[in-house]
Amino acid sequence: MYRFLGRRRRRREAGETLVELVLAVTIMSIAVVSVAGALATGVRMSDLHRKYATAGAAVRALAEALYASVTGSGGYLDDICDGDPVGAYQSELASIYTPPANFQASVTQVRFWHPDGATGSFESGCPDVGVQLLTVQVASVDGRVAETLDVVLRKPCRTEDPLCA
Questions:
Q1: pLDDT tens digits, 85-130
Q2: How would you write the chain as a 3-class SS string?
Q3: Closest CA to 130 of 86, 162, 96, 94
Q4: Exposure string (b/e) for 108-124, b if CB count within 10 Å is 16 or more?
Q5: Would you kindly state where each structural domain of the chain is located, as residue ranges?
Q6: How far apart (Å, rounded) are the C-alpha atoms in residues 75 and 66?
Q7: What predicted TM-score, i.e. pTM, was given to this entire model?
Q8: C-alpha to C-alpha distances, 59 to 4, 28, 137, 155, nearest whole angstrom
Q9: pLDDT tens per residue, range 34-73
């Protein structure tokens, strides 16, 4: 009886083999990389969506500023079809509108109304009969987002204007 107490019975130690450990670490690594990639994509898409929302609101605010300028202090620029109409409105834009941080506003195209009988169209040449189509754009400075809007400006007809008198 004392004999069995002195002898210890060796039990096989339960544990994982090296192959099992490598396999587990590989599976966990793939899972962590997948989750990190999904988070990075979510952050990028959130930033892009925020920029689109900001640019959309800014281009509408730009159109409102142009409208207020034309109806207020005579911001309609006539006699510009022979020169550089885009440059003329671009300099006007700098005085009436400030874009949000990290965005820039621009007038990309100016076209003039040409009545042709019962119908008409907007074209880039003269004459200017009092209706202009401006294409305005607000874009992020990193170039990832741009919102464009067409704005029709009509020369105001006020009592002090010679055309309406």
A1: 888 888 888 888 899 999 999 999 988 888 876 678 888 877 888 8
A2: CHHHHHCCCCCCCCCCCHHHHHHHHHHHHHHHHHHHHHHHHHHHHHHHHHHHHHHHHHHHHHHHHHHHHHHCCCCCCCCCCCCCHHHHHHHHHHHHCCCCCCEEEEEEEEEEEEEECCEEEEECCCCCCCEEEEEEEEEECCCCCEEEEEEEEECCCCCCCCCCC
A3: 162
A4: ebbbbbbeeeeeeeeee
A5: 18-154
A6: 8
A7: 0.71
A8: 91, 47, 6, 21
A9: 999 999 999 999 999 999 999 999 999 999 998 888 877 6
Q: Which two tokens stand for residue 22?
A: 């490598």
Tokens for 141?
A: 């400075």
First CA to last CA distance, the chain: 130
State the Cα–Cα distance between residues 55 and 41, nearest whole angstrom.
21
